[in-house]
Design brief:
The chain has a six-stranded mixed beta sheet, sandwiched between helices. It has eleven helices and eleven strands. With 306 residues, it is α/β, with parallel strands linked by helices. The protein has three domains: 53 residues, no CATH class; 164 residues, Rossmann fold, CATH 3.40.50; 73 residues, Beta-grasp domain (Ubiquitin-like (UB roll), Roll), CATH 3.10.20.30. Bound molecules: guanosine-5'-triphosphate (GTP) and magnesium ion (MG).
């Protein structure tokens, strides 16, 4: 080592050998490089430091931005966010719906990050997002962002534990966040417990709520249907003349879509040439003729005439 390196350089070198933290090592090396006198005699030292920095940067895990962990990219036919107080069974429900094995615990905040799973509902996939508990004391901005972007919200309360208060608190938060009421679905979990059943009988008089049990699988199938309905989507199958219908790959459309908008989605050119459509019933050869303003229904089979 050339003698003309400043004493701080050796001090930093000592620190460098003491730490195992990659980021810290990089910072120390950068400091060493900064204080290293720049002349011919130190060229090799400088080169070595640069090489070390480059090598460490390669092994350093990419920093995940805060916003990225708290954001869930939409997938499937729609995104449903489960919100509720601690321990209501949000994760147990996600596991029951999506066949996942996320961690369940009898203590609050078992779930700390939004965690997506996919629910296979008949022939479509719906994204379910499990979340940490939502309470008057814990209502972070990122949870609000998720609630705003979700296509629908399933509020899950714990029927064993004063569900009415829980529901009022969460409804208040959603109201403050300006979440449309139409996009909220309510379920109460743990109806397998006696106390849960008692509370459910009381609460159902004032709220539209479905009593379920993820543990005993009570009304879980019914909840799946309600989840699908909460998305306000329909599945439509295009049919080609004399060909079998592909029921595995429906078009997903918004409820209320007119036939002509469906035609446009398939092929914009067809709109001008559109002459009508044959509307078939499932499992039948019967059909009726419908026009451009016909409002499509879930599972309509449509043969477009152009
Ligand atoms: N009796 C009964 N217990 C349940 C049911 N579903 C969940 N539990 C229990 O309730 C506790 C909490 O379950 P979780 O699924 O972790 O609840 P969570 O809402 O995800 O909890 P946090 O992530 O902490 O907000 C666990 O001890 C579960 O075994 C149910 O249907 N019936
Ligand atoms: Mg959880």
């Amino acid at each position: 080592m050339p003698a003309n390196l400043p004493p701080q350089f050796f001090e930093l070198q000592r620190k460098l050998n003491q730490t195992k933290d990659i980021q810290e090592k990089i910072e120390i090396l950068q400091e060493m490089l900064a204080i290293c006198p720049k002349h011919k005699g130190t060229e090799r030292v400088q080169e070595e430091i640069k090489k070390k920095i480059a090598k460490l940067k390669r092994v350093q895990p990419k920093k995940i931005k805060r916003e990225e962990i708290y954001f869930v990219k939409k997938e499937g036919a729609g995104q449903v966010l489960i919100l509720g107080p601690p321990n209501s069974g949000k994760t147990s429900l996600t596991n029951a719906l999506c066949d996942t094995n996320f961690k369940v615990g009898d203590y609050p905040f078992t779930t700390q990050l939004p965690t997506p799973g996919m629910l296979k509902y008949e022939n479509i996939l719906i994204q379910i997002v499990d979340t940490p508990p939502l309470t008057g004391d814990f209502k972070p901005g990122w949870l609000k962002n998720l609630a705003k972007q979700a296509d629908s919200i399933l509020v899950l309360v714990d029927l064993e534990n004063n569900p009415e208060n829980q529901l009022k608190e969460i409804k208040q938060i959603l109201n403050d966040w300006k979440i449309e009421k139409e996009k909220i679905l309510i379920a109460g979990n743990k109806i397998d417990l006696e106390k849960g059943r008692e509370n459910f009988e009381k609460i159902k008089k004032d709220f539209e709520i479905l009593g379920i049990s993820t543990k005993e699988k009570i009304k879980v199938e019914e909840l799946k249907r309600k989840i699908f309905e909460s998305l306000k989507i329909i599945r439509v199958y295009p049919k080609e003349p004399k060909k079998e219908v592909d029921f595995e790959n429906p078009f997903i459309l918004k409820r209320g879509t007119k036939l002509i908008d469906f035609v446009k989605e398939i092929n914009e050119e067809w709109v001008k040439r559109f002459k009508g459509a044959k509307l078939y019933e499932k499992n039948s050869r019967n059909f009726k003729i419908v026009g451009r303003d016909y409002i499509l229904n879930d599972e309509d089979i449509v043969e477009i005439k152009i």
